[in-house]
Each structure stands twice: as C-alpha cells, then as structure tokens.
Amino acid sequence: MESRINVTPGFCPNCGSILPPLKSQGSVICFLCSKEFDPSIFGRMEVEYTVHFNKIIDKRNKNKEVNEEESEGPVVERKCLKCGNNKMSYATLQLRSADEGQTTYRVTPSKFILLFLQKNKNMSEEEKNGKTDDGSEVTYEKAKEYWQTIEPTVCGMLGGLPEVGFLDIQASTRFLKLLFKFKPAPGRNRALDCGAGIGRVSKNLLMNEFQTVDLIEQDEKFCQKARESLANSGHLGEVFNVGLQDFNESDIKYDVVWSQWVLGHIEEPDLIQFFKRVSKMLNKNGIIVVKENFTKNNETIVDEIDSSVTRPRGHFKKILKESNLKIIKEERQTNFPKSLFPVYMLAMKPINK
C-alpha cells in the first residue's frame, strides 16, 4: 500500500509519528498506529550513543561548597542536614508509580541524600519506613489532603510524567478489546471508572467502548474538572464525589468496572468489601478490571507522603480470593520507564458467576 504521508527516515509513513529505536534484530512497530515496518524504513540513518558516568566525589573535600559550574544540576541556598553545606544542587527522578509525584535528590560534594520534600527532617525511623504510631498504613484523611495539593491536569494525574499516558492507554485499549473477545463477552452499555481523577481514562479509553461511563472520585476539584471536560462527550453518566471505601450504588449495573492506580489508597478490609459490593453491581458477563503497581518482591511498600501502599502481586491475589473473585486475564504493562513499579492489568469475575 502506498504511503499516505511523505516523511523522512525514522518517522512512520502511515501516521507520521516518530518510530521507536531499531533493535538488534527484527522489525520495528510504530507506537501510535501499530504498523510494522522492515528495518529499511530507517534508510541510511546512523545512531550514536554516549554514556555519561557520574563523577567520583572526593571525600577529602567534605566541607567544600558546591560550585555552580561543577554541580550536576541547579544550585539552591539550602543547608545540608548531614554535612552542614549551605549550597546544594538537586535533580528529580520518577521512582514511584506514574500517578505519584517525583522524588527529589539534593546533592552536596560529600553526601548523596534522598530527601522527600514533604517529609519532616525529625521523623522517626518507623515513620521513614512507612509505619505510623498506630501501625496503620493507609490514612484516608491524609491521602485526601495530599491530593488536594495536586493540580487537576494530566501532568498532575500522572505525577509529572505525562509521556506515559499514551503508552498506558494503548496497552489498556488492547487489553479491553481482548476482553470483548471472551465468550460470553461483557456488554458495552455502562462502565464505571474508579478513582477517575479528571477523567483521563474515561475520556481516552472507556468512552470509546461504552455508551455510558460513570466516575468515582473523592477530590471535588477533580470531579468538577471531569464534568467540564467530558460534558460534551455524549457518554458521561454520574460523577460520584466519594471515596471507594464509601461507594455503594446498588441500583446501577455495570458491564465493566475499571480501577486504575487507586487501590493502594484503600485499607485491605475496605478493599475486600469494595470488591464484594461492585461484584453485585455487575451485569451478566460483567468484568472487574484492575490496573495497579506491584512490588517486585514479597514486601508491601508504604508511602507516607500520599498515605498509600504498593502491594506484592501474590498478596493482592489473596485479597481477590477473599473477595470471591477469580482472575480470567492477566497482562503486564510494557514500555514503561524501568524506574517505575511493575504495572499489571487483571480482569476478574465473581466466582459464583
């Protein structure tokens, strides 16, 4: 088929988007239109890579002040809590999930210190490890206060990493279409977006597949933004301004209940009850889908900043079992930055259905 777009090598002749780097062998697939091309699509292009290593810090210069020309980033007037330096350079890195804020590194010539900006410098070791005095891991009020500080934008929803949004929606779209191939398949009448934020997933995924989409979101300004941006979609149903732990609309039936990057904010007993409630809200052949971060080991990681937990996948499956749910499809999100937690999509049905 003849190309629709006249482009230079390295760009997709089908849709015009930039192509991903060519691997050592095999073809290349466009991220946007998923069209596959032979390596010759790159023509005679040459690619060079340069690896930059961090400088080795001389500990003998412990008390030397940071020089802006020698620093690894912008320099600010801030006293180092460890060595007493009055100047520090800083950089940010996305260590947590895509919908969380970035971590800030502050650097002096003598120490590399990991400082979470919102944390108090005098917190105890138990608090640093994610444990509070009462032993709880999730505090709803604290989580609510955290999200009140986040801007109602796509960048805010994705923790300053909006570029993962396209990859996220692309993978979710493929996963959802696979579910429609099940026999019997879920209907396409009504879906529920849990922890919807400003409606990013509803707008770019669910409203492309369902007649009506309802949203649950505990932050009022996010709800208002969602109502405004989705008002003319023709698919917006109810917007419930409530936390998942308190949601209970037994009169509505759904074909798909989609929960993404929100269940870490729900205490385990409440999460089990939430699953049991929405299971009763499913239409015949209805499916519950979860897209969440999971730890790489068997430890639960607690984030004291936004009062959330990242659970091991094995433990999460035990929660599903207690919730009387069985997994019918499971897939890992690909092409996300390696610094993020592994992200999996799980489709479940109630065991008695």
Q: What profile does the largest beta sheet have?
A: 7 strands, mixed
- Count of folded domains: 3
CATH architecture of the largest domain: 3-Layer(aba) Sandwich
CATH-assigned homologous superfamily of the largest domain? Vaccinia Virus protein VP39
Global mean pLDDT: 81
Shape: globular
- Predict the CATH topology of the largest domain: Rossmann fold
The Cα radius of gyration reads 23 Å
> Got a strand count?
15
Strand order of the largest sheet: 9-8-7-10-11-15-14
Strand content: 15-25%
Give the proportion of residues in helices: 10-25%
Element order, helices and strands?
A: EEEEEEHHHHEHEHEEHEEEHEE
Query: Which stretches are poorly predicted, pLDDT < 50 over at least 5 residues?
Result: 62-72, 109-136
Give the termini distance in whole angstroms: 46 Å
Briefly, what CATH class of the largest domain? Alpha Beta
Query: What is the count of DSSP helices, taking H or I runs of 4+ residues?
Result: 8
Overall structural class, as computed from helix and strand content, comes to: alpha/beta
GO molecular function: N-terminal protein N-methyltransferase activity; nucleic acid binding; zinc ion binding
Family: Belongs to the methyltransferase superfamily. NTM1 family.
Keywords: Metal-binding, Methyltransferase, S-adenosyl-L-methionine, Transferase, Zinc, Zinc-finger
Protein name: Alpha N-terminal protein methyltransferase 1
Compose a concise summary of this entry.
This protein has helices at 125-128, 140-148, 154-157, 164-179, 200-204, 220-230, 268-280, 313-322; strands spanning 28-29, 36-37, 75-77, 87-93, 103-107, 112-115, 190-194, 212-216, 236-240, 254-260, 282-293, 301-303, 308-310, 325-332, 343-350. The protein is α/β, with parallel strands linked by helices.
